[in-house]
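INFO batch 0412 | record 1 of 1 | parsing
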Amino acid sequence: MTTAMADERRDQLEQYLQNVTMDPNVLRSDVFTEFLKLAQLNTFNIATKKACLDIFLPNEQSIKIEIITSDTAERVLEVVSYKIGLCRELLGYFGLFLIRFGKEGKLSVVKKLADFELPYVSLGSSEVENCKVGLRKWYMDPSLDSMLMDCSVAVDLLYMQAIQDIEKGWAKPTEAQRQKLEAFQKEDNQTKFLELAREVQHYGYLQLDPCTCDYPEPGSGAVLSVGNNEISCCITLPDSQTQDIVFQMSRVKCWQVTFLGTLLDMDGHQRTLNQNLELRFQYSEDSCWQWFVIYTKQAFLLGSCLKKMISEKMVKLAAENTEMQKDYSSFLSRKSKIKIAKDDCVFGNIKEEDL
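INFO prediction complete | emitting tokens
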């Protein structure tokens, strides 16, 4: 097999694995989950045993839980929710992430742990320094906050994450908004704080580490914030000025993640191997489809965010369609009753003005 053939086969296998892990029917398969559990344990030579795992909350405090090294992220999330008293029916709104706090407390979300991943193994095998397992909300539509407001623990988590995102500069309040938010925070008025926070620019967005893109020219620096059905890019131009560009998800046709190889980087005196990834998406602009390419180690995380936004939009549209059908059925039923009633008027049973 030639090098070109091997590279092509590797690319096809990567695409296949990406597609397989996005199929909900496959992910619900016990056979598939068990296979992946064994693969993770065997790859890193980890025995199945009892262990302790620290889970970091959005306020950067941690809780210690007892697990089995073979516990999946789905199972660990259940243990965490029981420990903190989170309503079980709200589990789907939260997820486990590999996170890192860098210099000056800078927050970086390395990846979203899939349900079948083993957090103990993922944490131990991560090549990223100071990596931790963190609990964060996992939805991109800020309006979904309303679904969690009846659970005090869920509200606490939203409140903690909102404060963290503002402190880290992910969410960008105006000066007036900041003053009001600080006042609500002093009063510990979580409800009012979250109501106002939802009006803040990039509230609920996930911000990626600085990366590069091919727009407006190859090698342009960029900081991406993803959420609320858009990809918001702050691009650094060659003259060091910045330009804000927003890509609406409604105009994204498709995307793909590609592994470009492994690079040897020098971080001070330390040599590290870094995966070189890209995410490219096809976008409609001025009635023309064109590809935009983003080079980032968080390409898979970005892809997960895009998929999440699409799925949330589909659920919302389905709910609106169902509601419209109910309203239409109700209208037809009412119209039918009125018709019958008016027919009865002919026989003097009901007066027209009573309708």
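INFO post-check: Residues 269-273, 338-355 have pLDDT under 50 and may be disordered.
INFO record closed
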